[in-house]
Specification:
The protein is α/β, with parallel strands linked by helices and 212 residues long. The protein has a single domain, classed as TIM Barrel. Helices cover 37% and strands 14% of the residues. It has 8 helices and 8 strands. Strands 1, 2, 3, 6, 7 and 8 form a 6-stranded parallel beta sheet that branches. Strands 4-5 form a two-stranded parallel sheet. Helix 7 links the parallel strand 6 and strand 7.
Length: 212
């Protein structure tokens, strides 16, 4: 069975990473990885606008290079962007210097102090190299929208069954995830509003690192 939420021992082992936002504000934090994509990202923006929700988009800089107008449309309506690397490298398979340089290169296109490691895979040495310059953002809930073996109903349950104050939720604005992501996102927006949640941005707290 796939782990939708992060085991407590991982949060304990990597306390400098951001796993969850502080509770007490009755907010959840929607995040989208791997965009911008010309087909998918505009549909996400339309859904967010429908529910007056804000989100944080962790963009692959090479996609920003290809689709600058979509990137600007994200920022133009008040959403936040974060760094997801220049080329979506797997940290477990990439030497430290190569990994670091790839993330720094992405800054040419993405002006953000937030970084999410592609695949959620990052080594202790990579964390040490990056944490002085970035808040490294992980997640509370992984939707599995990208997994072709996960049906829409399960993807939706992955999110809705784990909603809690301060939760950081991962979706993907990619072609691979679109089929699961769009209906799950709308269900999440609808249920979260019914339960009295607002939708926060990851930069609203001055001291982000290590929150749980």
């Amino acid at each position: 069975m796939k782990a939708t939420t992060i085991p407590a021992f991982l949060r304990w082992f990597y306390p400098s990473l951001l796993w969850q936002m502080p509770s007490g504000k009755r907010r959840i934090y929607l995040t989208f990885d791997d965009g911008p994509h010309p087909q998918v990202t505009p549909r996400v923006l339309d859904l967010l606008a429908k529910y007056d929700a804000k989100a944080t988009f962790f963009c692959v800089a090479d996609n920003v290079r290809k689709h600058p107008e979509i990137y600007q449309s994200i920022l133009g309506v008040g959403h936040l962007t974060g760094n997801h690397g220049m080329n979506h490298l797997n940290g477990w398979k990439t030497p430290l210097n190569t990994y670091y340089e790839n993330i720094v290169a992405a800054r040419q296109y993405i002006d953000s102090e937030l970084f999410r490691p592609p695949y959620g895979r990052i080594t202790p040495s990579q964390i040490q190299a990056l944490k002085k310059e970035f808040t490294i953002v992980m997640w509370t809930i992984l939707s599995y929208d990208f997994d072709r073996e996960t049906r829409i109903e399960q993807c939706t349950a992955n999110v809705l069954n784990n909603l809690e104050d301060g939760a950081i939720i991962v979706f993907h604005d990619s072609l691979k995830a679109e089929h699961n992501m769009l209906p799950t996102l709308e269900a999440t927006l609808k249920q979260a509003q019914q339960q009295g949640f607002g939708f926060g941005l990851l930069d609203e707290e001055k001291n982000l690192s290590g929150q749980s």
